[in-house]
Structure formats: structure tokens, C-alpha cells
Amino acid sequence: MKAYMTNGTGDFLEKLAKKHPQQTIHIMSSGAGSLAYYEGTNKELFVAGRTYEVLVEKGNIQEEGFVAMNNIPVTEEGRPVFEDRFKNRKHEVDNMEGFQAFRLLRPVSGNTYVVLTQWKSEVDYDHWKNSGSFKKSHSESPTKPPAYFADRPFLTTYYMKKEDE
């Protein structure tokens, strides 16, 4: 399966979603702008944007919630190691209160993977970040970034935008 993302103003992305009512397009917003997210096979849905292979998926993306996207640039030679790490993860996040969905997204072009988690609320996400499970799963990470990082990872967060907003 593929995932597609595009950025734009909230109004533009809502019009795009209404233009394709047969598709489930999730609109998310943050202080920096809005993003449309779609999983499926219709690559022509977005004129501009980013395409990803969905490597790992757990749960269904919900219409409401808080989304955290860890954007991780990975070197070409580091891809197998990085992907293997996530494919063999312990799934502890899946059992956290408020967890809704997880996606590991490999870029079709470029080198920035996206690790997407969706939560019922930002508070649930914060509880995960402050949990012993989070610390344990991230304690295996050395203080120095892994050699497969092509650049510094960065986090983007969004709130799912309801249709009536």
C-alpha cells in the first residue's frame, strides 16, 4: 500500500477532499499549516506532494486525534538496518492508552522516512513520551545519532481537522 501527503491551506485541502468524496482524505492542521494524508492506490489524487510505501501499519487512521510524525533522513546504505529495526519493534506503543495508529513510511523519492503515530489526544502522546516503555524502547539508541541518519531527525505534529471546523 502507498501513502500520499501534500501540504496547503486548510481551505484548499478541504476543497480537494470534497472533490474526491469516494476517497478517505485526512486533513490535519498545525501552527505551520495544513496537510492532507491519503492511503491507497490513486496516485493522481494529489497534483503535488510526497509518496511513501507503507512498510508497517497498525490500527486505522481516525478522523479525530493528535498525530506525531518523526521525519528521519536515512542514508541509502542505512535503509535496511533502519527498516529492520522498526519491523522488529516490540509494539509497546500499540498498547498505550490513547494509541490509535502507527505507520512506518518509506519515501518513494528522497531519503526522509516518516514514523507516524496517531493518538486520541496530545495528552496521550505526552504520556507515551514520558512512559517507562518509551524510555526503554529508546534507551537502545546511542547518545550519538546512528550512522544511518543522513541528517538530524525532526518532529512535526498535527491535530486532525474535523469537517465542521
Structure report:
The chain has a single domain (2-160), classed as Alpha-Beta Plaits (2-Layer Sandwich). The protein has an eight-stranded antiparallel β-barrel with strand order 1-3-2-8-5-7-6-4. The longest helix has 10 residues, at 10-19. It is built from four helices and eight strands; from the N terminus they run βαββββαββααβ. Strand 2 (25-30) and strand 3 (33-40) form a beta hairpin. It is α+β, with helices and mostly antiparallel strands. The chain is globular and about 45 Å long. InterPro entries: ABM_dom, Dimeric_a/b-barrel, Heme-degrading_MO. Keywords: Monooxygenase, Oxidoreductase. It comes from Oceanobacillus limi. GO terms for molecular function: monooxygenase activity. This is Heme-degrading monooxygenase HmoA.
Briefly, what is this?
With 165 residues, this protein is an alpha+beta fold. The protein has 4 helices and 8 strands; from the N terminus they run E-H-E-E-E-E-H-E-E-H-H-E.
Helical coverage, percent range: 10-25%
Please count the beta strands (DSSP E, at least 2 residues each).
8
CATH fold descriptor: Alpha-Beta Plaits
Q: What series of H and E elements makes up the topology? A: EHEEEEHEEHHE
- Which CATH architecture would you pick? 2-Layer Sandwich
What is the typical, i.e. mean, pLDDT? 88
Report, as a whole number of angstroms, the end-to-end distance. 29 Å
Strand content: 35-45%
Secondary structure category: alpha+beta
Radius of gyration: 16 Å
Helix tally equals 4
What is the top-level CATH class?
Answer: Alpha Beta
Residue stretches low in confidence (pLDDT < 50, at least 5 long) are none
User: How many structural domains does the protein architecture include?
Assistant: 1
The outline comes out as globular
Strand order of the largest sheet: 1-3-2-8-5-7-6-4
Task: Please outline the major beta sheet.
Answer: 8 strands, antiparallel, barrel
